[in-house]
Design a protein that fits this description.
alpha+beta, 6 strands, two-stranded antiparallel sheet, four-stranded mixed beta sheet, single chain, 4 helices
Length: 133
């Protein structure tokens, strides 16, 4: 593994993602480099699942989430979708200590018709998934 101080190259997504650069938009030449002192860009346009579904006229049948502890908030923004379409859910349930039970209770409160299953996909404590069908 490279020492922390060495410049690392992130995965490349040409034309899609740019690195933050101390509060200023990154120069094109900086967009492919990890910058340890970068300030996150908080202007990213987040859209709730409900808004996306409504605005684009889509009917989701599966929703998968592994968003590093943001699952609860994302589910809050998907309540109408879960009530109306009851898509199958695959939700990571290991980022926060109460995820396993809290996410299940949250989903069940939104739509009591869901049935729940649990999957664990590695030999270590990570990658536990709550399935709702």
């Amino acid at each position: 593994m490279a020492p922390f101080s060495q410049e690392l190259e992130p995965p490349r997504f040409p034309g899609r993602f740019r690195a933050a650069s101390n509060g200023r938009p990154a120069l094109a030449s900086d967009a492919t480099k990890i910058q340890p002192n970068a300030i996150p860009d908080t202007t990213f346009p987040f859209v709730s699942i409900d808004d996306y579904v409504r605005d684009n006229g889509v009917r989701p049948n599966v929703i998968k989430m592994d968003i590093e502890g943001g699952e609860c908030d994302a589910l809050r923004g998907a309540e109408q979708t879960l009530r109306t379409f009851q898509p199958r859910l695959m939700i990571s349930a290991y980022h926060r200590t109460d995820d396993l039970w809290g996410l299940r209770e949250q989903i069940q409160a939104i739509n009591p018709n869901y049935r729940f299953h649990f999957g664990h996909h590695t030999p270590v404590q990570w990658e536990s998934v709550l399935y709702a069908v």
